[in-house]
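Dear support,

I submitted the protein below through the web form. The confirmation email said the job was done, but the results page showed an empty box. After a refresh the structure appeared. I'm attaching both so you can tell me whether what I see now is the final result or a partial one.
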Amino acid sequence: MLSKIRNLSALYRSKGFAATRNYVWERVASAWNERHLGIETTRIVEKAEMNIDNAEFAHYIPMTFGSLRRCLARVTIRPDEDVFIDYGCGKGRIVVVAATMPFRRVLGVEISPQLAKIAERNVSSAARRLACRDVRIIVHDATTYEVPDELTFAFFFNPFTEGLFSQVLARLRESLDRRPRRFTLIYGNANDGVRQLLHATPWLIPREEYFDWAMPATWSRMMILENKTN
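What the results page shows now:
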């Protein structure tokens, strides 16, 4: 308890009142959401724990529930028609929250078998709370994963470097060329390199860009883009 008070005090001194208030609120919201859904997605997992030594992949750090729900509230979901995928789904927090909404199918792609197993367990535990009944976790490298031609939403929460992300973008474009359709890309915690890459991607149109409380004790850039349909 004393260490938590010290941590909050240090956060207040370095970030100020608003950041401290947001941090406490998100911790409370996280605990409530995890109990409500029956899942465990909070603990950060270092790459070493996943036996991943590739510098292009990120550690597992979950997006806050609040930021995730606010983000998904900004898009229009066509019930029982839209198909959602979370690239680098980790323990499945984004997959589970998306599956509480009326998507036809929700997929999570994760390179770590260890995290994928936890994600599957979380999906199973949350089953009675889910609106979507077709939820799958796929163990695969995102850069070589064959994009389903029914996919309409792709979500990224800073899972890997811009180099790998550009490869995934190429696969998404191939799928859209094979079967033209409406498509939305959501990127959370976009750094400057990712932002530049997305703005330079000619087949994507930025629809919205804003900052939200998406990681512990910091703000991050959220981006929502749509494909050109003409």
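Response: this is the final, complete result; the empty box was a page-load delay. The helical segments are 2-15, 17-37, 65-72, 93-99, 113-125, 162-178, 192-199.
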